[in-house]
Amino acid sequence: MKLGLISDTHDQLQRTMIAVDRLVSAGVERLIHCGDFCSHEVLTACCALPLSFVFGNNDWGVEPELRAAADAGGAQCLGYGAEIIIADRRISITHGHLHTESRPLMAANPDYLITGHSHVAMDRQLEATRWVNPGALHRASEYSVAVLDLASDQVDFITIPR
To answer: pLDDT at position 43, please?
Structure first.
């Protein structure tokens, strides 16, 4: 199964729609958003695929609208962080700004830790856990999202045009 990873969209609706289209073209079957939607319109655009997401530090204040959009679009809201299982893989998801969320998730030694917040794309192995940040679609030197292929354990970053 291929997962699309996206984060820090910061109300960039057009750029998010382009990113989601690119992920669909790459064969992604499910989307994980690591927070900082900043608007329910962006969340709705991400519902083009089955969506699991967490809130980011810039989602404070719009959480009720995001929850309503998630309910309408059939998305799975994971609060500020949680572990889910997809294709027998333990995947922890958090925005990355709260150590109270990220530390326990990492301590549980998931197969993958997916985060955002830094606006910098990253893929690294930390002991048994592969930590992936797809980058950002706002305030980044290069806009990016990522594809995580759970079958091959491959991560590919996709650059989104400015």
So the answer is: 98
